[in-house]
Amino acid sequence: MSFDGIMINAVISELKEEILNGRIDKVYQPEKDDIVLQIRCFGNVRRLFLSANPSNPHFNLTEKKYENPLSPPLFCMVLRKHIGGGKITAIHQPEFERKIVFEIESLNEMGDYTINKLILEIMGRHSNLILVNSSDVILESARHINYEVSSVREILPGKTYADPPAQNKINPLTLTRENLSASVENNPSVRIQQMIYKSYTGISPLSASEICTRAGLDPSVNTDELTSGDISALYGAFKAVIEIIKRNDFSPCIYFDNDSKPKEFSPFELKTLQPMRFCRFDGCSEMLEAFYSKRDSAFRISQKTHDLRKLITNNIERCAKKKDIHIRTLKSTENREKHRLYGELLISYAYTVENGADKATVINFYDENQPEITIPMDPDLSPSENAQKYFKKYNKEKRTYAALQTLIKETDDELYYLESILSAIESCESEQDIKEIRRELYEQGYLKKNRGFEKNKKSVRKSQPMHYISSDGFDIYVGKNNVQNDELTMKTASNSDIWFHTKQIPGSHVVIFTNGKTPPDSTINEAALLAAYYSRARQGSLVPVDYTAKKNVRKPNGAKPGFVIYTTNRTAYVTPSDELINKIKQV
After folding, report:
1. pTM given for the model
2. 352: DSSP letter
3. CB neighbours of 148 closer than 8 A, spacing ≥ 6?
4. What are the C-alpha distances in Å from 473 to residues 89, 264, 478, 529?
5. In the CATH hierarchy, which top-level class contains the domain 172-301?
6. pLDDT digits over 555-575, tens only?
7. 5-141: what fold?
8. Tens digits of per-residue pLDDT, 96-134?
């Protein structure tokens, strides 16, 4: 379900119980489109997350601690100035629109109490967070909209706030049999589902389909085909949904697809999605946190690592082409031993070969069968000179072969390293993880240093490996990038800890901290699953994962970050999946 008026109403009813009359202690802006308000209410501290992200606009109470920029953005500073320490006196949803208004009472610069409004507009790519004063003058917004962007409605500091353009829809809370019948008549030859969400405010296509399903009607049927009895059934189902909203009788749940990935969410059970598997939650915020947490993170990480992915992909293609050239050149040296043989035989039979001959037929005494062999010759050269020519060609091809072996090995190592960077990008969970990968690429020469690099290098906070706890209570740590892998394996882990890595596949280092104990097979299997999941073989089956005591792992001198060698290992074969990984407790 999109974040429609019904979902907004459900979350607001929850917020009124949790944070209404609470005071805003702190204001954070972890991302350009996101705001986090820390609110103290009745002795409890709650965090309210507000997102105007164009792809996933939403709001909910959260337990998550967000990483914030070292310097707060302008919008954040304006919010701190005008609503910091303020009291939330009202939370409402005008006319069931996809708009949430927080009225906040605070002291102005003159020491007088005033009411400012923080407005979250959930309108897809037009979503925005806007702060207005008591006179409806815009103080600041997350996204500025000038006349060039929209000739209908400007969102700029100093401008008077205006509601989004009216769509002449009916507030569903005022539903009657008469206005539903009128909506059917005013929308001839359209699907029932379309008629509902185009006629009533805040109703998404999925909600409209649910109303149809509860009425026993096919959502794709045209309004022209509806009988009086069908309209009565539709009205009854629609009214039942409205009663759920008015009573705040919500039972939030998430529906999952066949791959156990969250597909849809709803403030109540949906007959439309039966028989999809679903999971109930105690509150809407808890449900939204579960649904959006990974999706938001993945979206932002994808945006911020797009240039890195392109850079690494281009370098992988470059290395692949270079390796292909090396292999083709290597094939030209396949006759080097034959050239050496020709030279030695010509030296041995020089006295029997006439000068000016264009070939020599001699016995190959190096072969136990001593067959005759014909050697092509340059008639302008003596037999000895022809022999030296073959020796020269042999030595050149021998040097070329040795050099190409080294070059191919270096190219393979670089390809492996670049693949490990892609794996690290997939494991990124925060801005700090991305910065660490960028710093590694700077140091390895793949990115050029910009002016602010050294300054940023000092300000980057060190991120930590992912921390899991096995079903048997053992701590399992997973490195998120190559530098972190080195730190985890070579500095943090002790000799008795158990180290895991996918066999000849780029991926994260995984370590079980044993504390001198022997972990059971179940913990070994969970660590192997994590190693396979956080590798380039995430989508594979029966992925080979090597594991050994950390004392058997060492890093060669001069090796690239993340590269180690190991001995005395065993191998586990596992098939990773989101479902199995989600069963392992993450700290």
Report:
1. 0.66
2. G
3. none
4. 46, 33, 16, 16
5. mainly alpha
6. 999 888 999 999 999 999 999
7. ibrinogen binding protein from staphylococcus aureus fold (2.30.310)
8. 999 999 999 998 888 889 999 999 999 988 999 999 999
